[in-house]
Amino acid sequence: MNISRQHITRAAVVVFFAAVAIAIASATIGREIYGATKESLLSFGIVNFSGYLFFLIMPVELAFIYYLHSDLSFILLNVVAVTTALGSQMVDYYIGHSLSARIINKLIGRHRYQKAEEEIQKYGNIAIFLFNLLPLSSPLMLCAAGMLRHPLRQALIYSALGLTIKYLFITIFFL
Q1: VTT domain location, by residue (predicted)?
Q2: Cα–Cα distance for residue pair 148/51, rounded to 1 Å
């Protein structure tokens, strides 16, 4: 059984970022669920911001539903969800814009990156909108958009539209 150094490095990166995601979720949602503390917009914002970074995988839609059933204002919750997601996606975009394809390929895998790249080249803003509307990997899409030098303003406008509709739909359906 021959395991390459690249596979070991990739596994170590995945384990590290999974540990970071678990630590963030435990420090915010976990503390609020198991502790005596009350849900807050700050903890939701931290979880949502972290979940939209392309290198962390967190179920942000589930976290949104959890916080939706708290005493928090659903309007403020929607505003925080969209703004923190857009903030993270700007980070994803600039990471993609500043890093080489080789580094990104090692971090997330060539296949995942190529798929996002193909979607942006083929469909552009429509792909960005749909990936934000649906529970797909929109952070990867914004990272690829940055690597392809897709206009940031267009990417953020279509991301904001998709995110707003998604979170409003979740609010209506689960409230």
Answers
A1: 73-172
A2: 23
